[in-house]
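User: I'm writing a tutorial on reading structure tokens. Could you give me a worked example: one chain, its sequence, then its tokens, then a sentence or two explaining what the tokens reveal?
Assistant: Sure. Here is the example chain.
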Amino acid sequence: MSPEISFDLATIWAGLIAFAVLAYVMLDGFDLGVGILFPFLPEETDRDQMMNSVAPVWDGNETWLVLGGGGLFAVFPLAYSIIMPALYAPIIGMLLALVFRGVAFEYRWKTKAGKFAWDWSFAGGSTVAAFAQGIALGALVQGIPVEGRAYAGGWWDWLTPFSLLTGVAVVVGYALLGAIWLIWKCEGRVQQQAFRHAQWTGIATVVLIGAVSVWTPFLNEAFRQKWFVWPTLLYAAPVPALLAVCVLALWNGLDGQHERQPFFAALGLFGLSFAGLCVNFYPYIVPSSVTIHEAAAPDNSLSFLLVGSVVLLPLILAYTAYSYWAFRGKVGVVGDYHH
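And here are its predicted structure tokens:
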């Protein structure tokens, strides 16, 4: 039987951090994807239009990464102290890549001779950041060795065939998000190229989601019980069924040259894949080692932080919604939006 869900402070905070991580993946995923696609659109004017499409919102999207990481440190300190030593290398790689990418946003407009180098810094930073996120995800899913209340593995435990697969899957998936974002935000040549890139990245993303989904239950007996044993199968079954619906909607939208349907279908793919991970993880925050309640801070701390989040989260959501609304419409080469 699946464990009963109790909506106490620790569970509420686990849901809030999961929401922050999902928001980061969905929002920052498409602008990382735009960077990943940079080498596939070699014309300078096309790259200018691609960068202009994400320039007003990219830094705001990363707010969710800070919220998720900071929330983990404050609310689940035991989990933070175990996960960080296990994943130092991919996390540091991700942060350095994000720095390169952010610097490239500013400096590629300020030079002609060095624009080529900054273009590749933007593309490389986006790709490495996405790959590092996928590696960290794969390492967490496959399990982190814990003895007592500390990480008990080695420096290279995060590097495995499964984590490499998830790294590639995240890169390709973000490229899909970048392509369907360009379909929505751009016109003309960039949009038509984005349709072509969305088709091959869409196929590759679905194949990789399938490969990861098939492999994951064999990493952990608890995962296998949730997906293949009755009655827990009843709770997990809707996820692959809804994934199939999103795949059909994505393909139909791309085949019909629709602008918005592929975007929401691709977001559905990511959201449902994340839901599948939550099914695997609950009630653990470090799979099969540390539960949400074991890792949580004292209730007094959780209550105090929850009061702040009640104020902070609506402000972040309002700012995010306003920024997307203010810069709605198509973007031109020089950054002019029209409706």
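What the tokens reveal: The mean pLDDT is 86. The chain has one domain: 10-326.
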